[in-house]
């Protein structure tokens, strides 16, 4: 069992005899130590104090921490000189216990390079990519899990428990637009004639301006928090093992969710939506379009369409009600307007709108947690939409179905967190009704075929932990 360095195992003691862990936990202040220490490592002598100016190399730093650093205050002095690693008080405290945790348990972590793991902790924390609350020694297990997540140990451990498909070539066909032994020549002339017409017809057919809508006044952040809380448990342990987890103390979900009501759209965003919508059009298969080979032509056609004012207005109406998650920024934009159906009363319309919002959150939250190494595979196959949207829709629907099932079965606390401004009776009734429509049908069907062959655990690990080889890629 992994263990955190306890007070009675640390050399550093406070003047009153208590362990350094106890002292930091109780007062938030370091022990009183001499302000200058001398270390000899690798035949070099280092004098460390608060005004130290010489950078200490990592090898020397690691050797010092492994054998000689006895308490937090000394550790902070060693980390500070040279500004290479210059953690603040909070970061220093976290690093002191995190590095101690690795060293204390190095015999049980023999399959990883402890030195590389220590470097990762220093780089990630000291560059400000992750900031941490003060160590709470009352929850050693959670602290240990966090350290193991950052260094990638949990990710590696979970992946090793799963089997890589024996014949990945059998799965490869689901990621290609055409099941052909060799890619066929792109019919660019046909593509340039039919794509603009078909794409505009599709956008007009689903023009939000044609439908009655319901506006939800509650901040979408509340629904996002409720769905996120459920998702972290539903997809356990995979989300919690993401080594570059986008939600941390320094960037919680509250800083990542925004409303689309006041967003100003630009042509890059408009083009992105049109390209996304074009992926399911039959003309792409008809013209033997390949995501890897022919994307530049698609982008050129879309940019040309956006020079027409009426097309820009049409796309903007779609954008106002189309949720999105930035793959790089990891920010989620959520809409406030939802389709209203004629057969619904006012209260039923609000309940239906809330479930539409939950469905949107479920899908976008999957984008939010998707590992960059999984997303990168979309450019390596001819039907990259299976990667970017097929698996996202599949897992979003699995999450939504679990939420609906929980509410329909009368889980009161879940219902109260999810229903927002909807009345409880109508919200539960809607959960027991038919599910909403599915999106990205072709890509979704392909993703389901893959999951049926490798199992959901492989899909989840591939998606969240960036291990596409688990689904044959």
General shape:
globular
End-to-end span in angstroms? 35 Å
Structural class: mainly alpha
How would you write the strand order of the largest sheet? 4-6-5
Q: What's the number of helices?
A: 21
Strand content: 5-15%
Number of strands: 7
| Low-confidence runs | 1-56
Tell me roughly what share of residues is in helical segments.
40-55%
- Give the SSE order as H and E letters: HEEHHHHHHHHEHEHHHHEEEHHHHHHH
Radius of gyration: 27 Å
Query: How many distinct domains?
Result: 2
Name the average pLDDT. Answer: 79
Largest sheet, described in full? 3 strands, mixed
Secondary structure blueprint with pairings:
Blueprint: H1 20-27, E1 36-41, E2 44-49, H2 58-67, H3 72-79, H4 89-104, H5 114-126, H6 140-150, H7 153-160, H8 168-172, H9 188-205, E3 213-215, H10 220-234, E4 257-259, H11 267-278, H12 282-286, H13 295-305, H14 309-320, E5 324-325, E6 332-334, E7 337-339, H15 346-369, H16 372-375, H17 385-408, H18 412-418, H19 424-432, H20 441-454, H21 456-465
Parallel strand pairs: 4-6
Antiparallel strand pairs: 1-2, 3-7, 5-6
